[in-house]
C-alpha cells in the first residue's frame, strides 16, 4: 500500500500513483497537505469527511481540498488512482470537496501524470496538463448522491448509526429517544439542520447504499430486502424517484446517478 510518506521529499506540483486495496480495509481519518484527486477504476468505497459521506463506484472521482480530514472504507476490493496537487496551482485552492463522473479527458490527464512517476521536471507540457486537469475537475458536474452530516452531535450520532445499518426498521420515535429528544424536537431540529425531513434523509441513505451494492454485483432483489423494502419494485420506484434512472442501469456499466 502506498502512502504520501512514500513520495519523494520534494515532489513536483502534481504527482500520483495507481494502487489497490483489499475489501474491508479502513484507512482511518487523516489529512494531506496537498489537494487529493481519487479516480476509482473498480470496486466501491465509502469516504467520510467531517461533514459529508460519499459512496463511490467505478468511473467516479472525488476531489478533496488540502488538509481535509477524511476516512476511507473499502466496501470491496478496490483499484484506484490518486493525484496530489500542490497549492501553487492557484485554481486548485478554489475547488471545494466534490464527487463527479471522471470524463475520458480527466482519465487521460491522470494517466499522463502517473506515467511520469515521481521524479519528472515540471516543464511547460506538464504544467499545461496539471492546470487542465484542475480546470476539468472544476467544470465536471457535481454528483448529488452524497450524504450530509448534521452539526448537532446528537443528530450526528443517529445519522452515523443509520448509515452503518441502513436496513434497520426502527421508527422515528426510537431514533428520537436515542438522540435524547422529544419526537417533535427531533423532527424540527433535523429539518433545520439537514434541509429535509428525517424520513426523506433515511430513504436517501438507502438508495445511495443500494446503488453502491448493485454496482458491486449484488442483485436488485437482494439489495431491496437488505435495505428494508418489502419488494424490489418498491425499491426501484424510490431509486428512480431519487436518481431519475432505474437501478438496472447500473448493470450496464453506467455510473451516472447524478443530478444538478
TrEMBL record:
The keyword DNA-binding applies. SMART domains: HTH_ARAC (SM00342). Pfam families: AraC_binding, HTH_18. InterPro entries: AraC-bd, Homeodomain-like_sf, HTH_AraC, RmlC-like_jellyroll, RmlC_Cupin_sf, Tscrpt_reg_AraC-type_HTH. Gene3D superfamilies: Homeodomain-like (1.10.10.60), Jelly Rolls (2.60.120.10). Keywords: Activator, DNA-binding, Transcription, Transcription regulation. It comes from the Bacteria. Residues 153-253 form the HTH araC/xylS-type domain. PANTHER family: HTH-TYPE TRANSCRIPTIONAL REGULATOR NIMR, TRANSCRIPTIONAL REGULATOR-RELATED. This is Helix-turn-helix domain-containing protein. It comes from Acetobacter fallax.
Amino acid at each position: 500500500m502506498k502512502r504520501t510518506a512514500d513520495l519523494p521529499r520534494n515532489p513536483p506540483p502534481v504527482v500520483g500513483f495507481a494502487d489497490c486495496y483489499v475489501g474491508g480495509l479502513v484507512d482511518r481519518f487523516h489529512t494531506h497537505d496537498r489537494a487529493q484527486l481519487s479516480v476509482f477504476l473498480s470496486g466501491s468505497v465509502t469516504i467520510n469527511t467531517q461533514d459529508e459521506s460519499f459512496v463511490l463506484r467505478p468511473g467516479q472521482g472525488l476531489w478533496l481540498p488540502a488538509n481535509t480530514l477524511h476516512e476511507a472504507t473499502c466496501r470491496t476490493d478496490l483499484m484506484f488512482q490518486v493525484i496530489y496537487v500542490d497549492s501553487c496551482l492557484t485554481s486548485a485552492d478554489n475547488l471545494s470537496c466534490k464527487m463527479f463522473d471522471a470524463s475520458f479527458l480527466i482519465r487521460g490527464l491522470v494517466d499522463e501524470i502517473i506515467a511520469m512517476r515521481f521524479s519528472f521536471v515540471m516543464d511547460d507540457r506538464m504544467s499545461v496538463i496539471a492546470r487542465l486537469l484542475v480546470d476539468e475537475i472544476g467544470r465536471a458536474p457535481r454528483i448529488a448522491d452524497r450524504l450530509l452530516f448534521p452539526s448537532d452531535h446528537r443528530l450526528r450520532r443517529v445519522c452515523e448509526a443509520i448509515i452503518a445499518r441502513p436496513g434497520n426498521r426502527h421508527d422515528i420515535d426510537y431514533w428520537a429517544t436515542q438522540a435524547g429528544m422529544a419526537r417533535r424536537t427531533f423532527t424540527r431540529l433535523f429539518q433545520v439542520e439537514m434541509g429535509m425531513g428525517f424520513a426523506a434523509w433515511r430513504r436517501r441513505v438507502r438508495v445511495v447504499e443500494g446503488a453502491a451494492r448493485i454496482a458491486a454485483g449484488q442483485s436488485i432483489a437482494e439489495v431491496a430486502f437488505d435495505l428494508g423494502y418489502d419488494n424490489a419494485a418498491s425499491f426501484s420506484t424510490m431509486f428512480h424517484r431519487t436518481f431519475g434512472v432505474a437501478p438496472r442501469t447500473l448493470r450496464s456499466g453506467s455510473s451516472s446517478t447524478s443530478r444538478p
